[in-house]
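Limitations

Structures in this collection are predictions, not experimental determinations, and the ligand pose is part of the prediction. Treat each record accordingly. The example that follows, with coenzyme A as the small molecule, is included so readers can see exactly what is and is not provided: the inputs are given verbatim, and the output is the predicted complex.
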Amino acid sequence: MKIAIRTVRDDAEFESWHRGSEAMFGAPESDAELAVERALVPLDRTVAAVDGERIVGTAASYPFEMTLPGGGTIPVAGVTMVTVSSTHRRRGILREMMSFQLDDVVSRSEPIAVLNSSESSIYGRFGYGIAELYQEYRIDTQRAAFGRPVPERRVPMRLITKAEAHKELPSIYDRCRLSKPGMLTQPEAWWAGVLGERQTWKGGGSLYVVVADADEAAGTGPGYALYRIASDTPSGTWKLTVIDMQAADSVVEAQLLRFLLDVDLVGTVRFESRPLDCPLRWWMREPREARVVHVGDFLWVRVLDVVRALSARRYPVQDELVIDIEDPFGGHGSGRYLVSGGPDGASCEPTHRPVDLLMDIAELGGIYLGQTRPTSLASAQRMIEVTPGALARADAFFGWPVAPWCTTRF
Ligand SMILES: CC(C)(COP(=O)(O)OP(=O)(O)OC[C@H]1O[C@@H](n2cnc3c(N)ncnc32)[C@H](O)[C@@H]1OP(=O)(O)O)[C@@H](O)C(=O)NCCC(=O)NCCS
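Predicted complex:
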C-alpha cells in the first residue's frame, strides 16, 4: 500500500502522532508535556506518513525567528520530531516527508529551515549544513581560580524559584538572544518545557535558577543560569551541570561564571553548551583546566530563499561575490547570485556574471552564520574556487566576529 504524506487532522490524531514520535526517541512524555507540544506545534506545521490508518512517520516545524550576523532576525522553520517507525525504515519515507516539509516551508515564505540532528549522516542530502558548533566544558572547582579580578557589580544575584523564573527569564533571554547569531525566539509556551516538572530534552525537573539583575548605574545588563546539582557523592565532590546560561554582556557573564564555579560542596562543574568564543579559558589562572570535553554540532541551516537569506544578514567587510548554488534536493536555492554587502547592509540578486565560487546549498547553510570557513569546505572538496583569490575573500566576507550559538533545544 502506498504511504500517504499529509498533515495531522485533529487533536486526537495529534496524540497518536506524538506518541509515535516519542517511541522512536525512547522518551515517553506525560500528558502535561503533550499539552505543551500541542500549544507549540500548529497542526498545519505537522507532517504524518500514514500507512492505511497507522501513522508510521512524523515531522513538524516550530515557527522561530533566528538572530543573524549583524543583529537582525529572520523567520525560520525549526524542524523537529522527525521519525520513521522501525517497521518502515529505509523505504524512502523520510525523503518524502522532507520534500513535503520543505515545500510547506517555502509556501509560508520562510527563507530558512533549521534543525539539530540525532546522527550527522542524515540531513546533508536534504540541503542542511552545519552552521554552529558548541563546546562542553568540565572544570575541577579546586583549579578554577581566575587570573584577574572579576569586574564588580553593585546588584546582588538572586536565587529564584521556577515560578519566579517563568516571569523573569523570558525577557532576559530575549535581550540576550539578539547578541549572538543562531539564537532562536522561545515563545511563551516554550518556557513551560524549560521550567517543567519533569526533566526532558527541553530542560525541566529539579533545577536551580540564579538571576543577575541589570545594574543601571554601572550600565551592565542582566543574565541568568539554570543548573542542576547531583549530590549523591561525598560533599566536596558534588557535580553541578549548567543547563543554560545567558548574559547580556561580558561583566555579567564573568560574574555568573564565577558564581557557578564557587557553589559550595561542588567538585566538578559541567557547562553543557558554551559558544566557541566563550572567554572562560581566558579568565582562568590555569587555562588548561577549562577542559573542553566535547565539541559538537548543534544548529544545521537549510537555505530555501537565497536572495532573502543573504540580503538579511550583515558582512564584516565590504565586498561582493558571485556564487553558483546547486540544490539537488528540490531545487529551491539553485541559481547564480551576486551578493554584495558590508557591515551596514547587503543585497543579493540572480546574475549572469562570471562565477567566483561553486557550492551546494548545504555548504551555503554551513557558512551562513559566519563560523565555518569557505576555505575549510574547499579543502574538503565541498566548495570550488573559480576566480583565484575568491576563497580568501569569502572567508573574510562570510565570517563574523561573534561565534554563533543556539541554546534552544528543539
Ligand atoms: C532517521 C530516520 C528518520 C530515517 O528514516 P527512513 O525513512 O528510514 O529514511 P529514508 O528511507 O527516507 O532514507 C533517505 C536516505 O537517507 C539515508 N538515511 C536514512 N537514515 C539514515 C541514517 N540514520 N544514517 C545514514 N543515512 C540514513 C538512507 O539511506 C537514504 O539514502 P539514499 O537517499 O542515498 O538512498 C529513522 O531511521 C528514524 O526515525 N530514526 C530514529 C529517530 C531519529 O534519529 N530521527 C532523526 C531525528 S533528528
